[in-house]
Amino acid sequence: MDLSILITIAVILFLVIPAPLLIVLHYVSKWKQSREISNDDEQMLEDLWNLSQRLAERLGTLERILSDDVPDLREKHRRSEL
Questions:
Q1: Are the CB atoms for 61 and 68 separated by under 8 Å?
Q2: Predicted confidence band of residue 50 (pLDDT cuts 50, 70, 90)
Q3: Residue 15 to residue 12: CA distance in whole angstroms
Q4: What does residue 38 show for φ and ψ, rounded to 5 degrees?
Q5: DSSP secondary structure letter of residue 77
Q6: Any idea what DSSP says for residue 21?
Q7: What count of Cα atoms within 13 Å lies in the side-chain half-sphere of residue 79?
Q8: DSSP labels for 33-62?
Q9: Residue 45 contacts by C-beta under 8 Å, 6 or more apart in sequence?
């Protein structure tokens, strides 16, 4: 057999068997890395959680103030929606 034929067969076999496997394994490892949350993302989520809690408290305070100032406000709003 000629050397060029052996090299051609070896290249074809590499392209058919190990190359697709290496590509799949590469993207599987990238996918697993992307599923993990980074420290910056974790800190950002904690900050957003704290902000949402503060906003919920403010909203509750505003609703109590409005309920005290205008007792039938919710009823008026409900009637206007109908």
A1: no
A2: very high
A3: 5
A4: -80, 165
A5: H
A6: H
A7: 5
A8: HHHSPPHHHHHHHHHHHHHHHHHHHHHHHH
A9: 37
- Radius of gyration of the chain, Cα coordinates, nearest whole angstrom: 32
Mean pLDDT computed over every residue of the chain: 88
How long, in residues, is the chain?
Answer: 82
Place of tokens 């496997």: 21
Q: Which residue has the tokens 């206007």?
A: 80
* CB within 8 Å of 74: residues ≥ 6 apart: 67
Cα 57 to Cα 51: distance, rounded to the nearest angstrom: 10
- Total-model pTM: 0.49
The amino acid at residue 57 is E
Q: Is-contact 73 66, C-beta < 8 A? A: yes
Residue 31 corresponds to which amino acid? W
Positive or negative torsion for Cα 78, 79, 81, 82: positive
